[in-house]
Specification:
Layout (H helix, E strand, L loop, with lengths): L3 E12 L2 E13 L4 E6 L5 H9 L6 E6 L2 E2 L7 E4 L12 H11 L4 H14 L15 H14 L4 E5 L7 H18 L2 E6 L2 H7 L2 E6 L4 E7 L11 H13 L1
Parallel strand pairs: 3-8, 3-9, 6-7, 7-8
Antiparallel strand pairs: 1-2, 1-4, 4-5, 9-10
Helix pairs in contact: 2-3, 2-4, 3-4, 6-7
């Protein structure tokens, strides 16, 4: 059984007095510990879809199941990472940011401090536990955000173009880091991106969406061995397959 199942999910909203169908009959599943990337051009509803999975939006039609149960609203079973650096609390240190979800769960102070330090070490920030967000680079802030999303042990990690605002070299570093963290934690990941190479580098499976309204056009399973070589012929062939379906 899939850990996440989308059943004919549609989403409609009103803009400038007219109804807009953002998603139409989106249906696919995500297995336990699977890394799924959702790709598509602007306007295909990728972020809307992720917001539905996060519980920030409710489908107009259809339903989302998690572990066989209909999803209703937000929950600590899902960790979310956005592309916006402002997602961190500026008045909290890196460690205190990572502790936030643990506080919400009522974890004792010593335990949550130890857990926060462990996940900051996992993302390579063990020497920056006392730094505030404004003292960290964009890539380092995203590492803190990933550590925070993982620390309270959600079963699913939802990521909305988390590296889009980073420079190319930092983005590549973060992709490698995320691949390593995923191998270490084996979380179920749904990752939204418009970057085809990023999707091929990270995903077990790529869900390709087309716009107006957003719907699933195809799905491609990536069987390349990890770690993946972005310059290999096989990698480039996968990129071509994805681009051909966009």
């Amino acid at each position: 059984m899939d850990q996440i199942e989308l059943r004919a999910v549609s989403f409609e909203y009103t803009a400038n007095g007219r109804r807009v169908l953002a998603l139409s009959d989106v249906a696919f599943g995500v297995g336990v510990s699977e890394f799924v990337c959702v790709v598509g051009r602007s306007g295909c509803g990728k972020t809307t879809l992720l917001n539905i999975l996060a519980g920030f939006l409710t489908p107009t039609k259809g339903e989302v199941l998690m572990d066989g149960k209909t999803l209703h609203g937000r929950g600590l079973d899902r960790g979310v990472v956005f592309q916006d650096f402002a997602q961190l609390f500026p008045w909290r240190t890196a460690q205190r940011n990572v502790e936030f979800g643990l506080e919400m769960k009522g974890v004792p102070r010593d335990e949550r401090a130890a857990t926060a330090r462990r996940f900051l070490t996992l993302v390579g920030l063990d020497k920056f536990t006392g730094a505030y967000p404004h003292e960290l680079s964009g890539g380092m802030q995203q590492r803190v955000a990933i550590a925070r999303a993982l620390a309270y042990n959600p079963s699913v990690l939802l990521m909305d173009e988390p590296f889009a605002a980073l420079d190319a070299l930092t983005r590549e570093d973060m992709q490698r880091l995320l691949a390593d963290v995923w191998r270490e934690t084996k979380k179920t990941v749904v990752y939204v991106t418009h970057n085809v190479a990023e999707a091929v580098y990270l995903a077990d499976r790529i869900v390709i969406m087309t716009p107006h309204p957003g719907t699933v056009k195809s799905q491609i399973t990536v069987t390349l061995r990890r770690p993946r070589d972005p310059l290999s012929i096989e990698f480039l062939e996968y990129q071509k397959r994805v681009v051909a379906d966009l």
